[in-house]
Specification:
heterodimer, A: about 400 residues, alpha+beta, MetI-like fold, four-stranded antiparallel beta sheet, 12 helices, 8 strands, about 65% helix, B: about 375 residues, alpha/beta, D-Maltodextrin-Binding Protein, domain 2, 2 domains, six-stranded mixed beta sheet, five-stranded mixed beta sheet
């Protein structure tokens, strides 16, 4: 009886829990929207009162300043939009490379910290405790001023034969550049790669059929390597030439160079973030029950095999979510690059703010870009997380 | 499972629309403000803010002036070891305080980096910006700033190591040059190098300390900023005699106080504060003889300046002895210059363009009458 009446509206809707929930949410959203509206309205009227209304037209104007490190063509005649793109690409460059190296270092340190070797685990523990407890900005300025700026000057460059030079203007190394045979060779290289992949797939299929999985990726890679070496000699003329760095005037020219600013921000981000990643990895490994390791040892796996085949795959499901946070942190922390002189998005944005006076607009763009980076990283890592998640029994 | 979230989503959407509609109506009472995206919105003056307090009222009520300054350029704006500020720009903050309050201590100094300064000014964090700031068209218009008369005519220069063999700009081919972020120097450098077809690498740091640090470590072949700044920073170098400033001047850098758009009275006060120091020098009124002049001067120009006749102070919204206080407590332009940059200082900068027009310089104040 009671259930019947309540379903037919005997209980007024303001006492019905289902409605209360919805109404509460509506009120919260309305309040939030009103708050944001009020904030934005405030901003717009404030700017209008100052005679500088919000406008993105400045993006099409010539930037008129130079940027030290660019991945794309850029000069002082380029537009502000292109300057922002230069900064954005520099941010992507340092974040992407940073994430890769931080992961490698972090995993090694994290595993080392669990090592039964006393010295190895102590060193790893000190690494983690020291580095994650120094503020990143302090660490970056330390790296920049006491490490990279204190490298030898150009005239006294530390040379590795003709191959590489270490100076406080950067590291210069010999670098392959396309030569006469490159046009033919690049297609041969592509062909070798395709064949290599096909070989790998063949061995993988065979592994599935026979139940004894060969090292299919190794076979694929060796095929690719062998074919590309053969192709080198088949190609008309040498496909690649070596571009040696040489001292021209005040700086080195030629070859490949890494500026001290880039190295300072990259090494700072990698070392700092790897300390956190090491802890994440350690936590993940320790979350795998002891029985798994004992069982793996019992069936005769070596300790490396145990780690690779038993422990790590299970640890991954614990590791990935916090690892994603660390990746996001690294990307966002790259905005500290301005402190060491690396022209990332934020640094270029600072200059633009000062030259164009468009502070609000530039900050809005900067925030939107970092948000997009972070969301894309999250998206990828969430996809990877679903992919590697073990099916629980 | 799917129905409930969908219902909630729809309800939320409706709520958003309702709120947006309500919110959208409010500003409709003030027409031509909200939906004017396509038209040139700048031309339409927005409805004036409801008679807000003027800057002068705010400053007087607060009991002190907030002055945006530099803390890293000796001679202009420098934080001294005892925690006080000193320098050429600082003295103009003091002069403004003297004009308003009759004493030089009612100032709060707010040290700002080059890129913070305009935002701080726009946001009303500071009342006046006196931080070796170059007057340019863009800043005057788009940054919403008003420039008071130039107090220091400067030009951008380049410091190099003497043993580097660089003597002219053209020797800088292929060089790395250290610059501070957010200054006109970044643009001047790009302009000059493009005009001469010189290839170079700018290395941009956020503060003057980082910039000179990188230069001293040899990261850069050269360091560029305004020439006065170069002289000032060189006085801090460990071995100043190993460095030199190139002859060439890259740009015009008129430096002076800056205020926000929108308060003409405040702009007038800052403008005439500067003119008062010029006028003082022009008529030979200085902090030593100002009392004597006030009592005995017969020249109407001096009598008006010192508030003996006329009501010049009242016209500015100040007391009539505003200029007397400036000159008595801070000094005229020559005294301010000599105290901070003159022959008795480590900088020993020649007056050059920064002389009164009587001596062939550019300092020329309109009559105070």
């Amino acid at each position: 009886m009671t259930t019947n009446t309540s379903e037919h509206g005997a209980v007024p809707f303001w006492r019905d829990e289902r409605y209360i929930q919805i109404i509460a949410q509506v009120i919260v959203v309305a309040a939030l929207v009103a708050l944001f509206y009020w904030l934005i309205h405030n901003l717009l009227t404030g700017l209008a009162a100052l005679g500088i209304p919000l406008s993105f037209r400045f993006l099409g104007i010539e930037a008129q300043f130079d940027i030290g490190e660019t991945l794309i063509e850029y000069s002082r005649n380029s537009t502000y939009a292109q300057a922002i793109l230069v900064g954005l690409l520099n941010t992507i460059k340092v974040s992407f490379i940073g994430i890769i190296f931080a992961t490698i270092v972090g995993v090694i340190v994290g595993i080392a910290r669990l090592s039964r070797n006393w010295l190895v685990s102590r060193i790893a523990a000190v690494y983690v405790q020291v580095l994650r407890n120094i503020p990143l900005l302090v660490f970056l300025i330390f790296l920049s001023t006491t490490v990279f700026h204190k490298l030898p000057r150009v005239q006294q460059a530390l040379a590795l034969g003709k191959m590489a030079f270490l100076t406080n203007r950067g590291i210069y190394t010999v670098w392959p550049v396309p030569a006469e045979g490159w046009n033919v060779y690049k297609w041969l290289l592509l062909g070798s790669f395709v064949i290599g992949v096909l070989v790998a797939i063949y061995f993988y299929r065979q592994g599935l059929r026979t139940g004894r999985m060969p090292l299919y990726w190794l076979w694929g890679f060796l095929t690719f390597l062998a074919l590309s070496i053969i192709a080198w000699f088949v190609a008309p003329g040498a496909p690649l030439a070596l571009d040696y760095p040489y001292l021209a005037g005040r700086n080195f020219k030629g070859g490949q160079s890494l500026t001290p600013e880039f190295m300072a921000i990259l090494s700072g981000l990698v070392i700092y973030t790897s300390a956190f990643i090491a802890e994440v990895v350690r936590a993940g490994i320790q979350a795998v029950s002891k029985g798994q390791r004992e069982a793996a040892t019992a069936v005769g796996l070596t300790s490396f095999q145990t780690m690779r085949l038993v422990i790590f795959p299970q640890a991954m499901r614990v590791i990935i979510p916090p690892l994603t946070s660390q990746y996001l942190n690294l990307t966002k922390n790259s905005s500290l690059a301005i402190a060491v002189g690396y022209p990332d998005l934020f640094a270029v944005g600072s200059t633009i703010i000062n030259q164009s006076g468009r502070a609000v607009e530039v900050i809005l763009i900067t925030m939107a870009v970092y948000l997009t980076f972070s969301l894309l990283t999250s998206l990828f890592m969430n996809w990877y997380n679903r992919h590697t998640r073990l099916v629980e029994r | 499972m799917f129905r409930k979230p969908l219902v909630i989503l729809l309800v939320l959407l409706a709520a958003v629309l309702v709120v947006a509609a309500c919110a959208g109506q409010q500003p409709a009472e003030q027409p031509a403000e909200q939906p004017a995206q396509e038209q040139p919105a700048q031309q339409e003056e927005p409805t004036p803010a409801p008679a807000a307090k003027t800057t002068l009222e705010v400053v007087k009520e607060r009991g002190k002036l907030i002055c945006g300054v530099n803390q890293a350029v000796p001679g202009f704006g420098f934080l001294q070891p005892d925690g006080s500020f000193a320098g050429f720009d600082i003295d103009f903050c003091k002069a403004l305080s003297a004009a308003i309050f009759g004493n030089t201590d009612s100032v709060e100094y707010r040290p700002l980096t080059a890129k913070q300064r305009f935002t701080a000014l726009q946001a009303g964090e500071i009342d006046v910006l006196i931080r070796n700031t170059t007057w340019t068209l863009t800043r005057d218009t788009e940054l919403g700033a008003n420039f008071a008369p130039t107090t220091f005519y400067d030009g951008q220069g380049i410091t190099v190591r003497k043993d580097s063999g660089i003597t002219t700009l053209d020797d800088l081919e292929g060089a790395s040059i250290c610059v501070s972020a957010g200054t006109t120097t970044e643009l001047n450098l790009a302009d000059q190098m493009a005009a001469r077809g010189i290839e170079y690498t700018p290395v941009v740091f956020e503060t003057a300390d980082e910039t000179t640090g990188a230069y001293l470590d040899g990261r850069c072949d050269a360091y560029t900023t305004d020439k006065s700044g170069l002289v000032a920073r060189m006085s801090l170098f460990p071995n100043p005699e190993e460095h030199m400033i190139l002859e060439e001047t890259l740009s015009k850098e008129p430096l002076g106080p800056v205020v926000r758009h929108g308060d003409d009275q405040w702009f007038d006060i800052v403008t005439w504060m500067v003119f008062a120091t010029f006028t003082g020098e022009e008529y030979g009124v200085n902090s030593q003889n100002v009392d004597d002049m006030k009592a005995n001067a017969t020249d109407p120009n001096i009598r008006k300046l010192l508030g003996v006749e006329g009501d010049m102070g009242a016209k500015l919204g100040l007391s009539n002895d505003w200029a007397y206080n400036i000159i008595k407590q801070v000094g005229n332009y020559a005294e301010i210059y000599d105290r901070n940059l003159g022959p008795n200082t480590v900088f020993n900068l020649a007056r050059g363009l920064n002389s009164s027009w009587i001596d062939g310089g550019l300092l020329y104040a309109p009559p105070i009458r």
